[in-house]
Amino acid sequence: MFLVPIKFGNNDKKQVDIDEKQNETLFQTNPIGLKESQALKAQIPIHHTFEKGFIDLGKIKTTFDRDLYCYKLTNGQKVFIMPKKGPTIVKTYIKTGSMNEVDSKRGISHFVEHNLFNGSKDIKPGVFFNKVSEMGGNTNASTNFAQTDYYIESQLLKDDDLTKTIELHSDMLQNPLFDYEQMVKERGPVTSEIAMVEDDPMNISVNECVKNLYQIKTNSKDLVAGTIDNINSITKDDLVSYFENNYSPNNMVTVITGDVNPDETIKLVASKFNKKNPTNQKPRNYENLNPVNKPVRTDLYTKNSKQAVVSLGFVGPKNNDTKGKIALEIILSLLNSPGSQMNEILDEKQINTNYLYFSSEKIGNKSDDKKAVLASFKCDDKDVDTVLGIINDEIKNIQQNGIDEEKLKAVKEKLIYSNIQMSESSYELNNSIGYCVLDEDLSYITNYKSILNDLTVEDIKKAAKEYLNLDKSSLNVMHPIENKTQFLNKNKNITFGNNFVDKKVYDESLVQEKTLNNNMELIVNPIEVNNFSLKLKFTKNDYIKCNPTAAIVLYEMLNRGSEFKNNHMIKEYEEKNNIHLELFSDNNNIGAIAYGEVSNIEKSIDLINEVLLHPRFDEKDFEIVKKQLTESLKSS
Questions:
Q1: Do 364 and 429 fall into the same domain?
Q2: Which domain holds residue 541?
Q3: What's the predicted TM-score (pTM) here?
Q4: CATH of the domain at 421
Q5: CA-to-CA separations, 522 to 512, 534, 596, in angstroms, rounded
Q6: pLDDT tens figures, 90-99
Q7: 341-348 vs 567-577: helix axis angle to the nearest 10?
Q8: Is residue 208 part of a domain?
């Protein structure tokens, strides 16, 4: 059976009038969604008629010292372009995810994502990936709670590669076939993914934590994947209906970062992304996110882990709260620091908490929806309450005492440095712009430095009290099934509460190679930014015959500090001087990697020198490392 591509609207005068009226309304109600756009809007007459297929909203200066060119297409779709040397990323963000689904269709966002790669008006099923590969590019997509996104990355090796990229990208997003046979076939890999994530204790624990944090009622173990029964019952009509209602131009943002000319690129985008918004568009579905007002705990059991798996969550800042999000970044940096008091106590007690890490996660896609602050870890079942008590004490300490001025300054410098590092990647830049636009918070990438530098100790204390509220928290513990007899009371009260590497363009003539007096080979590659990246490696060409675990233990021992400084002192030194150091070893190599600001390169070299010449080969540390590695192997 021949399936015609999905079409939206028609070309009669009535439809054109509707679209123009809708576009004018969208434009007058702040198309960028930020204060910056109000200034841009004032430069453009309201009666603008989109003769070129788009409106030029002007450009804004970002924290990355790069210009961001802002546009809106005739159909209301927003487009942002940032020129940059290196690979080019064309990525479209759709403001829909699993929190826009009804529970009986939970997983449809992810299922639609898979099906969009299976053929469109001008691309036969099975051809899309081949066409991208022919350009030397790569492509992927992802679905989350609040958004779905698709990208193509290309080096633009040929003159027409950008045109081909945008043609492929726009056709899959505007004209999918939703071929019935392909849809049935795609159920296989999608349901396999569901089976896989349902077997992952950490994933189930995080989902359970989020469900309880926002009081989400669902039959799905995984909020994004949905259930196998749901996927098998979703019809072609379901896919088409969801697509038409959520993949409309006024709900999409395209961001292009890379080696492009903005004037030429926007014309190309406007000529290809020309789908109209659907007539009689139904109201979109939004999950009712109702944050808890008391602590909630659930205890479950798993046969897939020998250790307890723990997830805890708090309600964080609103999606568009720039200051709140940046204050939270400082708090998370403190909690995640290896030199934190929390991690030092865990180390002293010899409690191995695998993967203990705090982060924030976008849950709803309304600008005033509140993010989740999440942390997960693994440990021995008997140590769960001890670890939670230590985390509880650390949070209360930040809430009551904040952070000393010197450490606050160091954390701010670290975050600014991370921002600079991120700006060197076309992919990370694209993500940052896309997420901020969806959050209606471009202020995050235009005023980041000034907002960060203005934050005070009192701001951090206030943010910690609000975003790590121990009295409004969610906790889930997944116990090993063999420990079921040690069941903890359900809902009891608690007190804690695809690597992308930018191929940097450089002049090979500037690379310097030199052999030093000690026969070490030195290679220097100058770059434009005020940062350095250093790698020191001692290599033996022949394979060293030894106990195969020796290199693994040595790696851990080298990263526990020097004879003069333990690992916490080393981390404090790194944070204070805004540098990062990691030692490594394998059966052929021993060395170190360091990066930071150029002004601190000498301090990095001194630190490497200290650790390698005076390693911390302490008997106590040696036993701790062996114990941690053994426990990790048992739980893997």
A1: yes
A2: 508-635
A3: 0.81
A4: 3.30.830.10
A5: 8, 11, 19
A6: 999 999 999 9
A7: 170
A8: no
